[in-house]
Specification:
The complex is a heterotrimer.
Chain A lengths: L9 H4 L11 H4 L15 E7 L5 E7 L9 E5 L34 E2 L5 E7 L2 H10 L1 E6 L6 H6 L12 E9 L7 H7 L2 E9 L11 E7 L4 E6 L4 H12 L6 E4 L16 H13 L3 E4 L2 H7 L6 E9 L5 E13 L7 H9 L9 E9 L13 H19 L3 H8 L8 E6 L5 E4 L4 H12 L4 H10 L3 E13 L5 E7 L5 E5 L8 H13 L6 E5 L16 H28 L6 E4 L2 E4 L2 E7 H7 L9 H6 L21 E7 L5 E13 L6 E11 L6 H21 L29 E5 L22 H13 L5 E2 L3 H10 L1
Parallel strand pairs in A: 1-12, 8-29, 10-11, 14-15, 20-21, 27-28
Antiparallel strand pairs in A: 1-5, 2-4, 2-6, 3-5, 7-15, 8-13, 9-10, 9-12, 13-14, 16-17, 18-26, 19-20, 19-25, 22-23, 23-24, 26-27
Chain B lengths: L1 E8 L2 E8 L4 H8 L18 E4 L2 E4 L12 E3 L12 H8 L9 H14 L5 H7 L11 H18 L1
Chain C lengths: L6 E3 L4 H11 L3 E4 L5 H6 L7 E4 L9 E4 L2 E5 L4 H6 L1 H6 L1 H7 L5 H4 L4 H7 L5 H9 L2 E6 L2 E6 H4 E3 L2 E2 L6 E8 L5 E9 L6 E11 L5 E9 L6 E4 L1 H4 L7 H4 L2 H9 L12 H23 L8
Parallel strand pairs in C: 1-3, 2-3
Antiparallel strand pairs in C: 4-5, 5-10, 6-7, 6-10, 8-9, 11-12, 12-13, 13-14
Helix pairs in contact in C: 12-13
The chains are: A alpha+beta, B alpha+beta, C alpha+beta.
The complex binds flavin-adenine dinucleotide (FAD) and FE2/S2 (inorganic) cluster (2 copies).
Chain lengths: ~800, ~160, ~300
């Protein structure tokens, strides 16, 4: 592991930074993708009886009626689970503040704590039959009082977990004093102006178009297990399965096939099904597959976003924040398998591009009888940015100043990097921003959206009886968290370059982007490079795809592995060409002496030379013999410290996160009569350091903004007081169609990260982060009514108008 | 009780023995092994399962296989002719109209039928045509671009 | 989400269909386009023992446009009616409403008659039938009856179709000369069922004064709510629809008739307000169309 800072080799082939078309598409546009449910055509199907109640004690499970179903293979309840499998699922990310972390059992034991919790697993000939059997299983429940709504839960009239007092999973306070040593509360008291208000954000969810799924094959002769899972982390699923089933790690392989979107929900692991399906496959010695359906995804995966925030802020006449005090109630649902990452991210990333005089943030993470809360694209940032940006707008309104001027007054300046926010980030490391140029970003955004000419536009619209408003939002996003990723690069004697990394892909175009890095670093044609991700047979150590980390962490690991390969290739070539390695260059897969193009040797030949075992299977091997020097009888064929083959493996472990940033602006129109809300324009300035493939980055932004628009205007999970999810379908959970998403105008700013060899920062989550804040600001501007709660529907806006 | 049905799928006569309740989506995917058609909701909203029934796009998750016994079905696997990608397929790749690719087969089938009936659509017509398909990844902008681009490619190749 | 098992019947003629329906009686359900029934089956919210699939009964696939109105057979798909120039000419409201029904791909399969029988209080076509005073023809083994719209919709997702009966066609009457229609709605997303929606029909007299004005509202009651607003509107010269009519009074008259409920998408208050706004919009647009737009600006 190393932190070298050579610049990327753009000059060699030039694909780095280009709008290269995607590798993945050829199979995906012809129906040849391999998604989870496309595999295992002959596998048995699993289905689950899930709790219809939000909170209940299981008195009895009667499976008798299901036993007659033709095609039924097996029925399992918690009682059937052996050993560690019967224990609660792991708590992945413990934290000292998480004093009462709780996780579910793979199948409910005694108590169910949300609608959708799995109670019985059924295995049958196909999914139709499995569902028939499920519908005949009778579970006798004693209904307990459900706890719904984070404020009710905080009152703790009833408990979600008997042994968790107050329903409080975690409580945490972070405090950053002002430079003069004053606390945030003191700074606010002493400030010329103060404001206090409450903000609300409701629940949404990742909702990838493909649900989760697991397919397991047990090989009885080999005593090994192969599992396919629609996961964001195959390496960790593998370790979980090995541990839970008591199998030696090398006997378990986990593969993430094509995955139809993740957005966070598939980073959680192991899902109950990820260990139950392999367990049953081994027990029954049959292939088994579980494909999550849409209703299951709504009621038994994960949600995010819901928070109540109480804000107090003190500021001066220019709008500079002198003290900020935020108290957050975070609804974590029924369990905390993923710890308290979300509220920690909210608390820290709330600061955005600003220098806040003194900051105090306190959160309570609270249990409710609802689906568990784990990261969804943005992972707590949208809430934090909502808080800070609404605060900036309130300050501007209070002072009668331009909203962008107030932001500019608080910006960290370009010459202040690295900038230490004085806090601890989600990875346990100091929150130090690496680079950025916020004033320039704001300037570009104002120009793009036409901020300064907007008043004229508003007047024009008003003259036509139309109401329009403009809003802006800024964010900073820590990306590319550690601890590490690895890359392996191998050149074979046919000249092909095989690359693998352990993290997974869900549509981000990693096969393309990583091939661009390799082509550039190694000096080989892009077409010769093939990339495999998320397959533990190819790469065993990885963390996973989340926190916008793939390009940063795997990208740099692969670049470093390439540099190893390059070094070795040049060494062998120097030997063969009798040249100084420093005079060698690789172009188009051929090593040549700079200035003497005839003195050259292709990498394919070097691949042959790198291996003393030289059976002449192909032309390349035969040709290579002309370069082979006679082996020295005094040395072993493979010298000490050397390995056969032209390959390299390296890891990249970032010292800290890199900090991408961006600013969005929107112009919205509200209908004075129907209260319908329409986004007329949406503009994005985005800075993720060096761009590897602008086309792909823009695609990520478009998708993120669309999800943000969903979260701002359409999507929310609505629970009733009994803990029933009222809109567990695409009919009523309103994911936007093309007709609801505006055209997104994007511009890039590139402030390279000084922290990694490629100078890149993450781009995956950015688009979604500030959207609710921006849309709320624009509606507020159009209507002149404070918008404190998102999402907002026409009906909500109508209610606000009536209450005015 | 199983029903014996015959479908002409992508120009090939295919037979299957299915229970009456077998959804066309499952019949294509599991009985006939054509897994290109995807299933994202099974209640008609997402459009991932869209296939062409006698040339017209329909939701295969809201159609029983027995109902369409004897009819012609085109799936994403049948859009390319003789190994050559159709204009719609090429345009989607060219315009980065897909990310995870799960929704893509539905969009491709919908757009193919649409451009056959309306070879030179305007923005609003394109939007209406794809308005019943959900995509969680792309934000639709490049999908819209791809449909226009496909119209262009089609016109270039016809002229 | 897979449908429960059922016995399948695929009759090829109307006679056979009626025989099967008589046999299975209350245990049977008709399968038309399946765009409402199959989602319910997939979610196991319905579990009929017998399904009678009418998709092979070609004689039901008819659209007959005559001067008096349009008769739509049970197998006519939304898309076919929407595209039928003859149907649109006789009763333009059909096309205006169908554009708002779901998405084009759903309309390729869903049937107009199926939509009426399904009787969703948020659906557009029941409001159209109710507004126009149309009817549905119900056939059973050995008999037939024509049920007027006012009696056809009996409650949310409930219609007058009795066990053993098939709705064979629906009749959408034409309007007199100098009539215009409109359908205005607000849905959360394009293509969704409406939060509120109003169908309107306006007929002008020879002096282009409002002679008749009716609206039908969706999503604000258990069945489409029809209101005759001729009295409140007219008779006033259509040339001055925009100035003379007391639109607030018209909106109030309709708002008094509806009984909206709150759900996850909207409050009852908003639905009531919205219906008022849409009543005005729809009536203005219909009056405009009735005068062929010659009679001045809105
Ligand atoms: C995503 C989506 C969005 C939609 N949005 C809308 C919308 O905005 N507005 C809207 O109006 N509709 C909407 N629909 C419903 C659509 O219009 C349906 O097509 C329609 O409601 C039912 O018609 P069908 O032919 O599909 O009936 P089916 O689903 O086949 O049947 C519906 C019911 O009617 C009965 N039935 C059908 N035909 C007959 C008959 N001839 N005789 C006796 N009984 C019969 C069936 O037994 C069943 O109970 C939507 C559907 C989907 C999937
Ligand atoms: S799977 Fe058919 S529409 Fe979603
Ligand atoms: S590309 Fe992933 S859902 Fe559309």
């Amino acid at each position: 592991m190393s932190e070298r800072r050579e610049p990327a080799r753009e000059h060699v082939t030039g694909v780095f930074g280009k709008r290269v078309q995607r590798r993945e598409d050829a199979r995906l546009i012809t129906g040849r993708g391999r998604f989870l449910d496309d595999l295992g055509g002959n596998a048995l199907a699993a289905a689950f009886v899930r709790s219809p109640h939000a909170h209940a004690r299981i008195r009895d499970i009667d499976v008798a009626a299901a036993l007659d179903v033709d095609g039924l293979v097996a029925i399992y309840t918690w009682e059937d689970l052996p050993g560690v499998l019967a224990e609660p699922l792991p708590l992945l990310i413990p934290h000292p503040a998480l004093t009462h972390g709780r996780t579910a059992y793979p199948l409910a034991r005694e108590v169910v704590r949300h609608v959708g919790e799995p109670v019985v697993m059924v295995v049958a000939r196909d999914r139709y039959v499995a569902e028939d059997a499920c519908s005949l299983i009778e579970v006798d429940y004693e209904i307990l009082k459900p706890v719904v709504g984070v404020e009710e839960a905080a009152q703790a009239a009833h408990l979600v977990h008997e042994d968790v007092p107050g329903n409080v999973a975690a409580h945490m306070v972070q405090e950053v004093p002002a430079p003069d040593g004053r606390s945030a509360r003191e700074a606010i008291e002493a400030a010329p102006h103060t404001l206090a208000f409450r903000l609300d954000i409701e629940r949404s969810a990742c909702t990838p178009l493909e649900g989760k799924g697991v397919y397991a094959r047990w090989d009885a002769d080999d005593e090994s297990l192969r599992v396919y899972s629609s996961t964001q982390t195959s390496t960790s699923v593998r370790m979980a399965i090995a541990a839970k089933l008591g199998l030696p790690l090398p006997k378990v392989e986990v593969i993430a096939p094509d995955v139809g979107g993740g957005f966070g929900v598939k980073i959680v692991h192991p899902w109950p099904e990820e260990i139950l399906v392999p367990w049953a496959a081994r027990l029954l010695d049959r292939e088994i597959k579980w494909t999550e359906d849409r209703r299951e995804h709504f009621i038994s995966s994960a949600h995010e976003r819901a928070q109540v925030q109480y804000v107090r802020v003190g500021f001066d006449d220019d709008g500079r924040v002198l003290g900020l005090d935020v108290n957050i109630l975070h609804d974590n649902g029924a369990y905390t398998p993923y710890g308290i990452i979300v509220p920690i991210v909210t608390s820290t990333q709330l600061l955005g591009p600003y220098k806040i005089g003194a900051y105090r943030v306190e959160f309570s993470s609270i249990y409710t009888n609802t689906v568990q809360v784990t990261p969804y694209r943005g992972a707590g940032r949208p809430q934090g940015v909502f808080c800070m940006e609404r605060t900036m707008d309130r300050i501007a309104a209070h002072l009668g100043r331009d909203r962008t001027d107030v932001r500019a007054a608080n910006f960290i300046q370009p010459d202040e990097f690295p900038y230490d926010q004085g806090m601890t980030f989600q990875d346990g490391r100091p929150l130090i921003y690496d680079s950025g140029d916020y004033p320039e970003s704001l300037r570009m955004l104002k120009e793009l959206i036409g901020w300064d000419s907007f008043p004229a536009m508003r007047d024009q619209a008003a003259a036509e009886g139309r109401r329009i408003g403009i809003g802006v939002g800024c964010y900073v996003e820590g990306t590319g968290v550690g601890p590490y990723e690895g890359g392996h690069v191998q050149v074979t004697s046919d000249g092909r370059v095989h690359v693998s990394t352990g993290l997974t892909s869900q549509g981000q175009g990693h096969e393309t982007v990583f091939a661009q890095i390799v082509a550039t670093e190694l000096g080989v044609p892009f077409e010769k490079v093939s990339v495999v991700t998320g397959d533990t047979r190819r790469f065993g150590y990885a963390v996973g795809t989340f926190a916008s980390r793939a390009a940063v962490v795997s990208g740099n690991a692969i670049a470093l592995a390439c540099r190893k390969v390059r070094e070795k290739a040049l060494r062998i070539a120097a030997d063969a060409l009798e040249a100084d390695p420093r005079d060698l260059e690789i172009t188009d897969g051929v090593v040549h002496v700079v200035g003497a193009p005839s003195a050259s040797i292709p990498l394919s030949t070097i691949a042959v030379l790198s291996n003393p075992l030289r059976y002449a299977f192909d032309d390349e091997t035969r040709r290579a013999t002309q370069f082979a020097s006679a082996p020295s009888p005094d040395r072993p064929p493979v010298s000490e410290g050397e390995e056969p083959g032209l390959e390299g493996r390296d890891y990249y472990s970032p010292i800290r996160s890199t900090f991408a940033s961006g600013m969005h602006a929107a112009i919205v129109e509200t209908d004075p009569l129907t209260a319908e809300i329409k986004i007329l324009r949406y503009a994005v300035v985005h800075d993720c350091g060096k761009l590897i493939n602008p086309m792909i980055v823009e695609g990520q932004i478009h998708g993120g903004v669309a999800q943000g628009v969903g979260g701002a205007l359409y999507e929310k999970m609505v629970y009733d007081q009994h803990g029933q999810l009222l809109n567990a379908s695409f009919m009523d959970f309103l994911m936007p169609y093309a007709t609801e998403v505006p055209r997104i105008e994007t511009t890039h700013l590139e402030t390279p990260s000084p922290l990694n060899p490629l100078g890149v920062k993450g781009a995956g989550e950015a688009g979604v982060i500030p959207v609710s804040a921006v849309i709320a600001a624009a509606i507020e501007d159009a209507e002149g009514i404070p918008i404190d709660r998102m999402p907002i529907s026409p009906s909500d806006l109508h209610a606000l108008r009536l209450a005015r | 009780m199983n029903h014996h049905i015959t479908l002409v799928v992508n120009g090939v006569v295919r037979e299957a023995s299915v229970p009456a309740r077998r959804l066309l989506s499952d019949c294509l995917r599991h009985d006939l092994g054509l897994t290109g058609t995807h299933v994202g909701c099974e209640h008609g909203v997402c459009g991932a399962c869209t296939v062409l029934l006698d040339g017209e796009p329909v939701r295969s998750c809201l159609t029983f296989a027995v109902t369409v016994d004897g009819r012609e079905i085109t799936t994403v696997e049948g859009l390319a002719t003789g190994g050559e990608l159709s204009p719609v397929q090429r345009a989607f790749a060219e315009c980065h109209g897909l990310q995870c690719g799960f929704c893509t087969p539905g969009f491709l089938c919908t757009a193919t039928a649409f451009l056959r009936d309306n070879p030179a659509p305007d923005d609003e017509e394109v939007l209406e045509a794809i308005s019943g398909n959900l995509c969680r990844c792309t934000g639709y902008q490049n999908i819209i671009k791809a449909v226009h681009r496909a119209a262009e490619i089609q016109a270039e190749e016809a002229g | 989400m897979k449908p429960p098992p059922f016995d399948y019947h695929g009759p090829a003629s109307l006679g056979e269909t009626l025989r099967v329906l008589a046999e299975v009686g209350p245990h049977g359900k008709v399968l038309a386009g399946g765009q409402s029934l199959i989602p319910l089956l997939n979610m196991r919210l319905a579990a009929p023992a017998h399904l009678v699939d009418i998709n092979r009964v070609a004689e039901l696939d008819t659209i007959a446009a005559e001067p008096g109105g349009v008769r739509v057979g049970a197998l006519a798909r939304h898309a076919a009616v929407e595209r039928s120039a003859a149907a649109r000419a006789v009763q333009p409201l059909l096309g205006q409403a169908l554009r708002l029904v779901a998405h084009p791909v759903i309309r390729n399969r869903g049937t107009v008659v199926g939509s009426l029988v399904h009787a969703d209080p948020s659906a557009e076509l029941p409001a159209v039938l109710a507004l126009l005073g149309g009817s549905v023809r119900l056939a059973r083994l050995g008999g037939e009856r024509e049920v007027a719209a006012a009696e056809f919709f009996t409650g949310p997702l409930e219609s007058a179709v009795a066990p053993g009966e098939l709705a064979v066609s629906a009749f959408f009457p034409a309007l007199p000369e100098r009539s215009g229609t409109a359908f205005c709605e607000v849905a959360r997303r394009h293509g969704d069922y409406a939060v509120a929606g109003v169908a309107a029909a306006v007929t002008l007299d020879e002096d282009f004064r409002i002679a008749a004005a009716r609206v039908a509202c969706v999503s604000v009651g258990p069945v489409p709510v029809v209101a005759d607003v001729t009295e409140v509107c007219g008779p006033r010269p259509a040339a001055s629809v925009g100035w003379d009519v007391d639109w607030d009074a018209v909106a109030r008259a309709v708002q008094d008739r509806i009984d909206p409920e709150e759900d996850i998408h909207a409050t009852a208050t908003y639905r009531r307000h919205l219906t008022g706004v849409l009543v005005t919009r729809a009536l203005k647009s219909a009056a405009h169309e009735a005068g062929h737009g010659e009679q001045g600006e809105l």
